[in-house]
């Protein structure tokens, strides 16, 4: 048995010795196939990342209000929130109300508090955030959702 392994390893060593000088001729890190296939391929395809490309702001808000109404557990509420805040614009207060009620409906207090953190990070200026807080003060009080600043005053 030992002779079989020796002969196969000797054959493998011979193959390596034959290939080694060829490999030394190429630049370090180069692959012969990559160097041979330097032909340019035109790219005419454009990837569409969203099926909602021509959606207006009102349609956007209506879609997310509906999704928050249909969210049935904490994971779904968080998934819809992630999708909602991944766009370039800030959701309307009506969408935020639906998000808060969905978070409280599935008994996810932390997500309800973090909705306001997301708004704070998403709005372009501090006075916009304060306008959202003023607009949503009633629903916050009704649902018992404090702000992170109220929970942890030292972390402002």
Layout of helices and strands:
Layout: H1 2-25, H2 32-36, H3 57-70, H4 74-85, H5 93-105, H6 109-122, H7 126-135, H8 137-143, H9 148-151
Helix pairs in contact: 3-5, 4-6, 5-6
What does it look like?
- Its main location: mitochondrion.
- The protein is an all-alpha fold.
- It has a domain at 57-155: Cytochrome c oxidase, subunit Va/VI (Serine Threonine Protein Phosphatase 5, Tetratricopeptide repeat), CATH 1.25.40.40.
- 66% of the residues lie in helices and 0% in strands.
- It has nine helices and no strands.
- It has helices at residues 2-25, 32-36, 57-70, 74-85, 93-105, 109-122, 126-135, 137-143, 148-151.
Highlighted features:
156 residues, mainly alpha, 66% helix
What is the second-level CATH architecture of the domain at 57-155?
Alpha Horseshoe
Structural class: mainly alpha
Tell me the radius of gyration: 29 Å
Shape: elongated
Name the helix and strand elements from N-terminus to C-terminus, one letter apiece: HHHHHHHHH
Number of strands: 0
Subcellular location: Mitochondrion inner membrane
Organism: Myxozyma melibiosi
Keywords: Heme, Iron, Membrane, Metal-binding, Mitochondrion, Mitochondrion inner membrane, Transit peptide
Protein name: Cytochrome c oxidase subunit 6, mitochondrial
